[in-house]
Structures are given as structure tokens and as C-alpha cells.
Amino acid sequence: MKTLLLIACMIASVVLIGCNEQSSDSRVVVQDKVKSDNLGGNAVTRPIVAAISAVVGHGVEVKDVTVKRNDADLLEVNVKGYNKAYSTKQFEYFMEWLDKDGAVIESITNKWMPVSAVARSNFSFKTVATTPEAVDFRMNTRKNRKVK
Fold first, then answer.
1. Burial zone of 144 (CB within 10 Å; 0-12 exposed, 13-18 middle, 19+ buried)
2. Rounded Cα distance, 101 and 127, in Å
3. Fewer Cβ atoms within 10 Å of its own Cβ: the N or the C terminal residue of the chain?
């Protein structure tokens, strides 16, 4: 029993440390089936690593947010991130555009929007304000709520 516990702890520590290989250029994504064999890519250990990932709570991480004015003088927000989990994560975001006084600009486009982030992959999405009066924003996220 102690041996099994020790093996489980070793596997968990390797997963938490990060056994996934990265490309030297962020523009190049090397998929699991192309990489060298590691605990997450090995057919025998993949279910264990995926289960540990789910228990530990690996999920999406926002790595970069850029804001600019586009040619129509509308505020444009680009969000880039990475899904650390071994499963696709679906979530929603709600963007609130703010005017120069910090007040929310009401719009019919103020609604929850879905995003899907593939397992162990980068993701990105862009959203654009509906009025030039928008000078700032506030974005909230939540777990995707499936409509029944």
C-alpha cells in the first residue's frame, strides 16, 4: 500500500512540475501525438495524468490582454491564454464597456459569450466595443452553462 501511495505521489509531482515539452517558438504548436513520449502522452499513464489534472483543478490561464483602438475608433480587446488541463475547457465571458466616468455603457451586445479552449493548447478571442465612447472595459468569466 505504501508503495502504491509513493508511486502516485511521484506521478503527481511530475505532473505538477510540468512534463509537457514546449516549442522554442510560440508560433509553433507541437501536438501530443508528435512529441516524445512523456507521462501525459504515454498511452498507459495518460488516464492517470488526466485524472490528477482534473483533481488538481488545472484549467485556463489568461497570459496576455492587449487593448487598442481600431480603424473605426472602437476599443478592441484581444485575450490570449493557455488551457493547462488534459480536457477541453468551455467557459463564457461577459464584457462590460466603460465610459470616461467609469460607468457601464448599456448595449444589446452585453451578454455571455462562449469560448472553447482545447486541451493543453493556446486559445484566443477578440471583442470590440460598440461605441467610440468606450475607454475601458471589465471582463468576467464563468463556467459554460449548457442550455437545455
1. middle
2. 21
3. C
**By CB neighbour count within 10 A (0-12 exposed, 13-18 middle, 19+ buried), where does 90 fall?**
middle
Residues 6+ apart with CB under 8 A from 45: 11, 39
Structural domains of the chain, with CATH: 2-56 (no CATH), 60-143 (2.60.40.3230)
What span, in angstroms and rounded, lies between the C-alpha atoms of 98 and 20?
39
Q: In angstroms, rounded to a whole number, what is the distance separating the alpha carbons of residues 3 and 26?
A: 39
The C-alpha cell at 74 is 472602437
For the stretch 1-42, pLDDT in tens is: 665 555 555 555 544 444 444 444 454 454 454 444 555 656
